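In this supplementary section we document a worked example of the pipeline. Step one takes a protein sequence of length 227 as its only input; no multiple sequence alignment statistics are reported here. Step two produces a three-dimensional model, which step three serialises into structure tokens for compact storage. The input and output of this example are shown verbatim.
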Amino acid sequence: MFWNEDKKTEKFEIPDDVVDVFFNVKCKCLPLEHMQALSTSLYTVLPWLENETLAGIQPIAGSESGNGWERSCDPEELIYLSRRQKMMMRLPKERLDDVETLVGKTINVAGQKLEFGKSSVKRLSDLPTAFCRSIMVNEKMDENDFLQWAFEELKSMDISVRKMMAGKERVIRLDNEQERVTRSLMVAELKQAESVRLQQHGMGDGRKLGCGIFLPQKDIKAVNSDD
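The serialised model returned by step three reads:
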């Protein structure tokens, strides 16, 4: 009898074809909904960014006025930025040299000066849970319809859905006075390659407006804190 129980598993290596770039930024404050103004200003110094399919811009987080814990419903509410504030962009690796031209530049975002400092690059994560605060959809949906829509989107990316949870619905206002509906989504028990693929491609429209960008999470607390 021959009996071999040595089951070798191949080690998964996270690809670096899409990466996260973090910039130190200096800015006193920004409106809560600053993404339209930020992306428009970035296009003036990075003209290729608007049509780069895999590029995404993460909203700049900061302390809101008041107690700082509850998210305001007022798009003009100001968020105050710390001295160690960073801005994250998700980009194809071949754009790293292009985006470095931001270092040392200052742009105007909704009347506020935003200065870019040094940058750092980080590979995506293979954690099994990923969370997106704002997924843009074309119309209002109840939670079940949204989850069904998300299921089909994930399926089209060859991602098997095991567990996912939808969060609060929000409305964002664009410069052309249009309003778009967004929802948050947590997807759990992803395989390593699935987690990376979801972060690379995102979900829905508006990646330059901070929508559809999935971030790795160690647990499901992100969804609870979103409310």
